[in-house]
Amino acid sequence: MKEPLFHIIKRTDVVWWKAWLIRAIAILAAFLVAAILTVIMTGLNPFSVFGAMFSGAFGTERRILKLFQGTAILLCIGLAVTPAFRMRFWNIGAEGQVLAGGMAAATVLIFAGDRMPSAFVIILCLAAAVTAGAIWAVIPALFKAKWNTNETLFTLMMNYIAIQIIKYFVLLWSVPKGSGQIGIINGTSQSGWLPKLFGQDYIFNIVIVAILTVLVFVYLRYTKHGYEISVVGESEKTARYIGINVKKVIIRTMILSGAIAGLAGFLLVNGTDHTISADTAGGNGFTAIMVSWLAKFNPLVMFLSSFLIVFLQKGAGQITTDFGLNKSFSDILTGIIIFFIIGCEFFINYRIVFRSSRKEAEKS
User: Fold this and answer.
1) CB–CB of 284/102 below 8 Å?
2) Whether pLDDT at 14 is above 80
3) For the chain, which residues make up each domain, given as ranges?
């Protein structure tokens, strides 16, 4: 039989500095390809385009705060899906879980915002959001545990249900009618809004997510529950053999995932937007899947992947504004960079052995 020209072999161990060197080379290659395409397609100086990208993310103090705020929200949603993914439960429903949490927080603000002290309203909103997110996530978990339903499709469909519920209440509670936006607070009251820290908006969100990141890392790495999640993810049969209640782990883990997603909805409603709409999550429920995978389910590394994606999004918007280009072009540049970053993981985890190299290795 004719031997193939090359084989793909999984690497057993890669030194950390080699892995990061491959990633750095991939980023440089991505910017090189993006620069070439910029010249060919627009005739613009690529350094000016990249300069606009950095300006869009770091140009002013306000932009820097918005950058880290966006990173915090995306990271929070990434933290939500990570425990489920480590368990090999493919939770594609973070978008709906965030909306469920945001809707619960918005409801509390609408009916209790001006009737209670602000601190008490914030606590009620947090409890409602976390509970709603957990309920939205545990429904597919129960079906999976009891009847082994397909969690990917189930959680995906739950997103659309949440979106339609939000659209109904936006129509019902919109102020003014037909505006497509809920007026949460009557008058000028800011009861229930997260307070400023150091005189700046969004800092509270960033601090909460930073603390949560450390807690999730410790939970997954050093607790019994985290160990059980990893074992179930490796093999359900092995987990049952050593006495782990797989159904209980699935339900418990999805409650945790949904609760964290609900927390993200709370931060969006009480800390950022102060309203709710079908676009409140902004597609971050799906983007968070990439964030979690890029970081290999490591909560601490997920900060870097979240930061990179939000940076590219902010920078792409600035390119469109400064040069009057179609948004599709900035999306192309963003896609190229992300493609190279994701693609380099292949070379970190696998190596290509050509036919001649293999024969030489066998002779030696």
Assistant:
1) no
2) no
3) 73-301
